[in-house]
Amino acid sequence: MNALMSGLRLAFLSAMVMALPLTARAQFVSDSSASTIATADRVEYRGNITVLTGQVDVRQGDVRVLADTMEIYSPGTGGLAKNDFSRVVADGNFYYLTSDQEVRGEKGVYTKQDNTFVVTGDVILKQADGNVITGDKLYYNLVTRNARVVGTCKGRRCGSEGRVNILIKNTQENSGN
Question: pTM higher than 0.90 for the full model?
Fold first, then answer.
């Protein structure tokens, strides 16, 4: 199995909105030639599903994915082959980490057929430059490189609760001026 996503670069474009289209760069399944290393407390093969359980840690190059459990769905049986999977579900304490960003949520689901992933459950995206976006769900299309973060509540009556929240760090703050 290749690592999930090779990068997620969000450009913070506008003020808080319910659904925010963002420019992004990522691949849930990396084209990297680096080896994939996965560790877990237990692995089970259930026909076409490989289940990693217990502090799952998957690494490839500078990409790291953490979760409580990870299910890898393959079209055939008998375990995993390179790129021979249709879907990955990483559930519980989901983290996606690179050298310049961090994505957190409760669950991350990658679907190979349409090259998309969805992160749900108190989503937090942090970039090395200090920018942060939070919401309830992140949708990302690897082909179009479009991302969308949404909340569960609409309008000012919600305050910041249940809405998309964005923190854009002032470049002067980042440079120490």
Answer: no
